[in-house]
Amino acid sequence: MYRMSSPQAHRNGHWEAVALTPGAPLPDTYGEDVLVLLPRDPHWMFAYWELTEALWQECALRWGAEIVQHSERVLRVHAVTENRFFDITITPVANNWYIQVDQPGRSYCVELGLKTADGRFFCLLRSNVVHLPLGQVSDVVDERWMSIDQETFEKLLERFRTHRVKAGSVEWAQHLVQRLLQRWERLQVGFSWPGGRREPAVMAK
Length: 205
Hints:
Elements: E1 2-4, E2 10-11, E3 14-15, E4 20-22, E5 34-41, E6 44-50, H1 53-63, H2 65-70, E7 72-79, E8 84-89, E9 96-100, E10 107-115, E11 121-126, E12 130-131, E13 144-147, H3 150-162, H4 170-185, E14 201-204
Antiparallel strand pairs: 1-4, 2-3, 5-6, 6-9, 7-8, 7-10, 10-11, 10-12, 13-14
């Protein structure tokens, strides 16, 4: 980690080189028992964790040293809303993992634990819950678009130019919007076809 020795990099109209001095190095651990789950995209999540020696000692006393020393370390991925899970075997030295899921748009959480040869699972840490985005274009549409001919567009534009009222007039704004909506309702809604004449479009709420 580096920091600038001086915030002044531009003096007397000239750019000068800014010296960098090494700052305090980032620690490898923070002495906390934590498991954090982050969403990456519709099909991937990222988990990172830290296990302290105190937690390992506590687990050895609770479950026995045999389980702690000879069990597999696994990430148990829970699909929260569907009450199902799957396990990922991880290496003993790992402290982070990318997790792929087959269904986007779901809520997930992860448990880090020990899995014995006979299938028993002992949870060490549990993560937060994340919600992955949908893997498709949203079907929420907030606007309606219509195509109008050039003549109508110019008339609407001229109406904006010729009106002279006080700025901030709520009554005028409401009146103008109402007039525009009435005029748009009389227009024929259509689309600009490829290769044809492109007509200006306006947005109607």
